[in-house]
Design a protein that fits this description.
Four copies of one chain form a homotetramer. The first copy, chain A, is of the alpha+beta class and 460 residues long. Chain A has 16 helices and 24 strands. In chain A, 59% of the residues are buried.
């Protein structure tokens, strides 16, 4: 929906190499389907059947682009896939994976993240006579690999040379004629994990994809690691860029990833339930019922209710069907969109004091509308509780979100000002300090750029 | 999904007449969108702009069939709409509302329910020279109205004459050139309510549609009532068939209707939360966490947790995207379908005793698969709790469900046998007797045909 | 094209019954494809596989609606098909063949022509309680058959009873559960013929369809004849309505039918070539080259050149691709449409005196534009010659054409006035009297309503 | 159609620059529509509105890809377009014009022809680190231009530098941010002309496109010429590569181009009519009627009839509608395809001696089938006359055609052997020597590689 009041993640990636020689197309589809929440506008898969590539990609959901017949066409023991949250009017050739020919045959790439120095790299390449068919940073990476390959002895050494010049967030899968590679940037912004299914090696953005494929989770790809799979050498790991201090994106836990995924050792659901409990401790509310804003606030509300013992009841219902064609994309349409998406439970709400829990607060439009609906239905009080800290900055690593001037919690706004705008009795955010008590894996440090411009949050 | 392990409702209906003369197309779309859960395969709307009809109907969701431009085309102050759960290969002409010309112009009809004596009525009509373009019972009703109209003085008296011969469940909206009518069968199997939005009168299957339209709920249509709206006489009620003992369908509360709807005085959410509490009392479980099977079991699980104080935690996650093109429609595909739809939360589940709550139990395929997944993820015990009584009979009023031989709780199966099949430690159903304590409106009696072949359950 | 400057025929019909039991779907598609010129907006086929009907119909060309897979689905030894020249925004249920259930099962109908008393029949039926789902006269016929069948002993006797009340032009194919029937109205306005392919009986609007199917032409269906095919009795002919004076439509020869069809004994190509020769005798021209307006005028120009010995050269080229989405449908768009459709051969035309031959003259827009183009390219003189008489009246038998006020040759306009409007040096039409010398089959009389309001033209 | 028994041309190109600043989108569509015969599988247009590009391209006809709304989107005073005869399953990104970014912004390219040394150039580029997203030779050209541009002072000097290394046939339109360029290879294999419409300069493959756009023909682009248009310098011509001996493709006249086009001074229609006359002199036939095989043979037949005085009559009719989905693409389907496409005129043919004229003879499948049909319809004799010489070699300049072993006239086959295969009484080809009398423009020499491996045919 255009009126999204959430951050938007870039994409999800997946790759599979069956060393036993079986076709990987079906499992790639299933895995990609499990990553649909990371991007639902377009998707694609490329498989490699002894150098014969099959490429299927289009705008639409995984279920729209791939059906049983498409799956049958995806022959080959190596393959990779991608979902992304942009699409529509977009040219089909921008849909990933992208595939190019270079001196050693073809190379395909699926990437999640954002190269922060892509523009600089592109200009240098153009000045050296390179042509570009898109504005994608993926194409920059392709050029760099092709140029590196004229002097490097292998695809993996070329990729390592390219990593020298890339800055920013990237978790990538690459497929050369004979190899599948998984690469995670040295600071590990985006997740990437590895599993096994029989004789096959699998890479995916989130572990939930492994579950859907029936694969066993093996381990996370380390920040800075390159894993290369081929028939000759099996699985090899290159750690030239490992060991730097990490910046795992905190919002992968707060919102992007699926609750059932386990990223770098942390189950997303557990993080959120615990955040809800910590929120209850930091910002208690004198309420009759706890209610989550669906879907993002649901788990936080469970934690809040479990901690306080206040009954958890749905007060707001979300229509699960898409409504985006039904209204114009202006302010009036935005109102209709929210009205069509949400409704309140009148008898449950009437006369009650409600602790309304959401995952995050961006513009506040949805929250304001829901508070109004609750009040109109007779709620006595509404206490808004946000399961994450105040978002006050843009993301420098490519996550799309409203500009700082549109962020309700930015600009030094007080709680009173926000309550006045939202129409609620009180508001409370999870303190940044509480994030350190969420029990995320202590081996890593985490990026909280959008909260405090810092990228090295440590757990207690 | 073809592998649906739930009952399937027939459809949802909506109608609107703006006595002030405004266009009703946009509100009909919004209302129909709110009824999408009652049928997501095809939908249609017909509006009447001073006798000029605009008909838009097709396979697909409301959001697919109607966009901003379609809405603009739907001119006129009278209109009606329909969603249904069948579609696809189905011929477009079977999509409702259906419209026919008769001696007084055109008549359009949207119907929810099932005429039990339709075949008898159709044969009699055919023997009298009638032609049929479908197997729909709606076409039978159209013929009866047209024939009645040759002797009756008005559309509404014709409809009343037709009601004499109809048996079964029906909530209908009809539109003649100048009138909009809402009819509910004498036993009131299917819900139907009425609201106002400014100068407009609105009818809908569920009150959630009124909310989405921004209309005020006025009252339910009584079982046996015919309400007729026209410019000349405004709103008139005909109660010739009112007063019989009612048979409101219990599964409208258990599963079909949206939690935020209020049907015949009963908020569906409240019924389900209360059922969850009653279930907890009747079938307690020694569990560490309570978990609902999404989406149907979610509210029951809230009631169960609220009653027992056991923490409510998600143990099972449901992928909200459609996956139905991704697998074949055989047994192997069925397995894949469930695997793609559900996943467990491994860290939350490991080592725990789980009270797993669902709304109802049909074939048990989904429950069995989920229990297996929980056990594989390390759950110590799984105690299945069902928020409604054992379903052991077919529905004689047209609800589609597996045959009796496929119903796990039918055939005298013991709890032990069911547990053995499902792989869980214990199972418990809401006792039929507890349904009498769910505080549904005591003015009515309720149909529990699928539970005990009775149609007159009274509240305590 | 919307800017058609031609008459428009209603449709084409086809039917096939393989008494040997083979599937007829593929041959029906091939035959229907050969009739595409009779209607290119929508098409449909229904086959009957021991009472199991397969119905495929949609807007679009035969090649769009039917592909190899569709053909495979069309199982059954009986079937019928239809092409029509209306479609697009039209409701799919109006596409023929139409199928209804009646007291004896189902009946399907494909009709070419126009029932002139349909409205009267419909009103009587409505007053007797009948409902109509369309404005099609086919539905009126269906009602009459169903009602007749309640007292008549068979489908064919019912049809004969219905023929009593039908007026106008109709060539029809009907399929009951066990029978295929072909019916031609007593005056024979529209063509209908019969052929054999092995054990199969075939009916089609034109003989070119038999050729495409690989069937042997057997004979024309006589005006007023009903032919009934079934397994029990084979082929039977009912001639109750034969013997009236006929009114074969002259424009089937002038424009509607394909040149390679032989209708009621007359090859269409030969008629047109001969008309061109007669035109040359009646209206000679002092020209350097003869040129036909493609495509309709091509054959007439051949006759004109063959008679006079003047070289035949293309002066005007027609782009064979459809251009109808490329311009707006207003006057400016109409100009663009003609400009995109036609172009002149500059070197061939320059300095020449041209005899420009077309089949008929309606509004004259196209002729005027082409004359202008020829003059701009340097043509010295343009002498317009029309291969048929002046069209001055509407067709009372349902052929769509511009109203009388838009017919250039109507309203008593002189040749000089027409030349002034068209920009040509002279104009000449085939005299009506010459039609009597075209050597059409003398057993019949022909309808020339649009030329002189008469319906009984005799050959010499 | 897959069963094409003709040579296939590569494509058609068009470009327009309105120095007065008006939008060129609509005229480009109209011009492209007129070039549809040069490629009907996919098409595209790119316009440039002060550096903002609009790109619309897809599989399908011009009329399918561009409608009135698409035309409105094509804003800008510079633009170019392309039609090609490949498409379908093909990836959308292969559809021209292709657009890439390079050091000076973007560059778009539409090309007709075939670079014979593309593979060599590509390998050298890859070894230097270049990546390729397709197998198109257009992408090779793009790389060369981008690299040249790092040292050349302008787009046009870069293009001239690139021309040094290109071999083969190419007529191209290029659009840089501020310039439109038209380039024709030094031997002029493919046509390219230039026109004016008010303040706009137009380039197109054939002059018929200028007519459709309402532009005035100005002159042909010379072999080896580069014409560059920009706001600052207007129209400039670069003749660095002009003056070599030319190799205009003879089959542009025989078959590829539209009859109404004037290429390098020669009207295509006049060439073909004259070829028909020369054929009649070289290979007379004792026949009752002359008949052309539609559509290619039609004009040759006119010449043949005009020269001999034998009446021209259609004996074979071609169904103008596409039938390609209606049959399988194997041998049986091929038979069906021809049967559906062609039919004979039985009464015209019966008992006649026919001179059957076609433009060229490749495999001979279609000719054989038509001869059989004529004989089955009662033709007494069939004398096949081919309006061009025997085709006996592949085209080294990229025209797609059957292999030499499938060419009926190759391999030293005698006329008797061909007649035996085709079933006709006699066969005659236009002698190569006669080509020299077709009065094509004597300033040029012509390529007859497919006839005699020579590329320098002179006119008498």
């Amino acid at each position: 929906m255009d009126f999204c009041d959430k951050m938007r993640e870039e994409c999800g990636v997946i790759g599979m190499f069956d060393l036993g020689g079986g076709d990987v197309g079906k499992d790639l589809c299933y895995g990609l389907f499990a990553l649909q929440h990371r991007g639902h506008m377009s998707c694609g898969i490329v498989t490699n059947d002894d150098y014969k590539l099959t490429r299927i990609k289009d705008n639409g959901h995984v279920n729209d682009v791939f059906d049983v017949r498409a799956i049958e066409r995806l022959k080959g023991k190596i393959g990779l896939g991608h979902v992304r949250f942009t699409g529509g009017a977009d040219l089909q050739e921008n849909i990933q994976p992208i595939t190019t020919r270079y001196c050693k045959g073809t190379i395909s790439l699926a990437k999640n993240g954002f190269i922060t120095n892509a523009e600089t790299l592109r200009t240098a390449l153009e000045d050296d006579g390179a042509i570009f068919q898109s504005k994608r940073d993926t194409e920059v990476i392709m050029h760099l690999i092709a140029r590196a390959r004229t002097t490097c002895p292998s695809a993996e050494t070329s990729m390592l040379e390219v990593m020298e010049s890339l800055e920013g967030a990237y978790s990538m899968i690459l497929m050369s004629p004979k190899k599948l590679m998984a690469v995670r940037d040295p600071r590990g912004f985006r997740p990437l994990c590895m599993g096994r299914k029989g004789s096959a090696v699998v890479f995916a953005s989130e572990s939930c994809a492994l579950d859907a494929m029936g694969a066993e989770f093996e381990r996370d790809i380390e920040p800075g690691e390159l894993v290369c799979v081929d028939m000759k050498n099996g699985v090899r790991s290159f750690r030239d860029f490992c060991g730097a201090r990490t910046s795992l994106c905190m919002y992968e836990y707060v919102y992007f990833s699926r609750p059932d995924s386990i990223l770098d050792g942390n189950e997303v659901y557990a993080f959120r339930e615990r955040s809800g409990r910590l929120l209850a401790r930091a910002c208690p509310a004198d309420a009759d019922v706890v209610c989550g804003v669906p879907d993002g606030g649901t788990v936080y509300a469970q934690g809040y209710a479990n901690e306080t013992g206040i009954p958890l009841k749905a007060s707001v219902m979300k229509n699960k069907f898409s409504s985006r064609n039904l209204f114009t994309h202006d302010a009036a349409g935005r109102e209709n969109a929210i009205k069509l998406k949400y409704n309140v439970l009148r008898q449950t709400v009437a006369g009650k004091r409600i602790a309304l829990v959401d995952d995050s607060l961006m513009r506040g439009d949805t929250a304001r509308r829901i508070v109004t609906m609750l009040k109109n239905a007779g709620a006595k009080e509404v206490h808004l509780r946000i399961g994450s800290p105040r978002i006050i900055h843009d993301c420098p690593y490519g996550v799309q979100m409203p500009g700082e001037k549109d962020l309700l919690a930015a600009g030094g706004r007080t709680n009173e000002e926000m309550c006045a705008y939202l129409g609620c009795e009180s508001i409370g955010f999870l303190p940044i300090e509480s994030l350190r008590e969420t029990e995320l894996d202590g081996r890593f440090t985490y990026c909280t750029s959008c909260l405090d411009r810092k990228t090295r949050l440590k757990m207690k």
